[in-house]
Amino acid sequence: MADHLLEVRNLSVEFHTASGVVHAVRDISYHLDRGETLAILGESGSGKSVSSSAIMNLIDMPPGRITSGEVLLDGVDLFKLPPHERRAVNGRRIAMIFQDPLSHLNPVYTVGWQIREALTTHGADAATAAAEALRLMTRVGIPEPERSLGKYPHEFSGGQRQRVMIAMALALRPDLLIADEPTTALDVTVQAEVLALLEELQEETGMGVLIITHDLGVVAEIADRVVVMEKGVLVEAGTVREVYKNPQHPYTKKLIAAAPGKGEMHAPAARAEPVLSVRDVRKTYGSFEALKGVSFDLMPGETMAVVGESGSGKSTLARILLRLDEPDAGTAHWKGRDLFTLSPAELYKLRRDLQMVFQDPTQSLNPRMTVFQLISEAWVIHPDILPKAKWRERVAELLVQVGLGPEHMGRYPHQFSGGQRQRIAIARALALEPQLIICDEAVSALDVSVQAQVIELLDKLRREMGIAFIFIAHDLPVVRDFADHVMVMQKGDIVELGTVRAVFETPRQEYTRALLSAGLDPDPDVQAAHRAARLQRAAS
Amino acid sequence: MTLQTDTILADEPNFATRMVRMLLADKFALCAAIFLVFIVILAIVGPSWLGELATKQNLRGRNAAPFDWERGWVWWMGADALGRPLLARIVVATQNTLMVAAGAVALSAAVGTLLGLVAGFSSPRVNQVIMRLADVIMSFPSLLIAVIVLYILGSSILNLMLVLAITRIPVYLRTTRAEVLEIRERMFVQAARVMGASDRRILFRHILPVVLPTLTTLATLDFAYVMLAESALSFLGIGIQPPEITWGLMISQGRQYLTNAWWLSFWPGLAIILTTMSLNMLSNWLRIALDPVQRWRLEMKGRKNG
Q1: CATH number attached to the domain at A6-258
Q2: Contacts of B9 in chain A (CB under 8 A)
């Protein structure tokens, strides 16, 4: 079977931790040929990154231990190589790119230096390295490549940094490229560009690409074959189309069903008296205009989705509405009173009505407080809501309402999974009995199946309690099933505002159309059609 | 990865039993705690118990060597330049030493932390005033301040404590401020603000608990520094004056005999090292025991050993 470029056979890795042995991956096997793209699909904790770390020899031992299996690169078992030969494989034959290029590029050296270093450590002389670095920067599409070589990583945008990482990875013309969530941190339009670049480069060099992702859309866009992992076990393998159209394992079925953007769209009721009406809000940071006059109305019990890429001003808008930042101009009337002119005492009362759920529950929950303390803090701050004797009872009620149990009260946030933590954050927001909850990317950090659950929970709260939502997201499919109105923002401006049906089915603006087409569809056939349409547009 | 399972939480024991159990799990911290309790007891009973013996001169026994098992137990560590038993003197000196060191550290930590919290959280102007004040203290040689202040106020244990505290304030102030500046931008602080929490609540309920572990570690390290600074002042004649004794003073008195009677400085030095080391180990344990994310390390260890 030496004809495969990479073959992983019966690999098992375990980690010895204080609470016992964790089997990160159990007896998994897969293979990859030259010029082929294999995707490893799984949610967090599925062990999808562990097998690639084993290939790259990046597992810390101890606590990790490879208990069985072999990794064959062109028929040679990497685990049996002596250390110096093993080192020569990394970089030269196998290269890797990571999710967050900013933390994987050294901030104190220029990008050019870092690319040249990759070349010189593997034996190139300085002059060749310099020429090659320039060629690579040009190839991956960095504007002004010559000048960019002298820049530091922070001077690039996220997408450009990922391109730089790709340039570094390709410096030694590896046979195998491992990409660990390469586009998760990027905007949709940038994600499409980076994936396209990867595909082009693969065709050029004929390398094998191993892509690790949680996103069905990425799989549909780029992969030839896919293996699905759940809790360290490989549950399904096959070509992308096969797996999507005809999933065998219940977990794969669940994963595909959870992909957002397939349900009925909301039809908002006729517009009545708005509960929040925002007019011409502006904000500048130095010379950067974050918001250039934003106006919209929000009805009671309605969901307004705010969609835009990073830097579009959507988070600034949320912070200003909650008075975490002060606007430069504009008004926002909440039930007839201007939010921006309230005194601190009035603002304190208003906090009960307006609440926020943050993007990352790991950071928005104080790690030193128990769930009970976290939720009841609302009543410590606003003592008139609930007498102290009833706190325990009400916390239990709230926990049940968000799908947790009263027995979770004494635990700390780190003892929960990401989705459960976000539920705690929602329970905390509900403790104040608000009428508007602003969700700032509240589901972006969660796994797809958990995402669906949290959105369902929010929708239930809206129906049952009449809470209005402002739902900020960078991803259009997520808001499709949940929003009544959609507001698309770009560079501090509203480019399109309308009912969810109007925005998704008949987008009027070019930017909205670009966003919609850049979004990756989990269905490989639909995605292929998207791609064809995109290429055609690019050509014309 | 979520490694924690329901086992820890089956039934939550109350705070005190939990702490005791965690202390038992860490043998080093347990030894340190026992040693410190012993030192504190010595500090309380020492002067009244051995006070007389520790100041009685005996010129025939000058610089008597240690480990002479035939004499009484107070002589086991030898005797100083005036023939006074070292063991007794160390016991008696415990009280003064701990009072000055603990007092100075506690005072400087409390004031420094409070100012640091204010500096990190309030307007840029207040921040500037506090920080420049700290710079003034830091740029002034601390011994010089001490000399001036003690010369004006006269030397007493209380004044000594005050002076040492003032010179150490900037250490806590700067550390606290730097941490506050970082923590105030964290999401959970923002979340508290959205709920309408007051500044005071955010500072003391959300920010201080995160800073505190760093500060306790800093304070235990400072303990040794303060003991030695106190001996330097005593050496200059403006700190503790004989016949009062402290460990630091004993070290500096023994310095001139270092070549022929090492034990004069060695034993009080050992006392300082053991005390600060114990404090350090205990604070290390405390840091883990009070952190809900780290706590399992101790609880797991306890289970394995027991």
Answers
A1: 3.40.50.300
A2: 410-411, 415
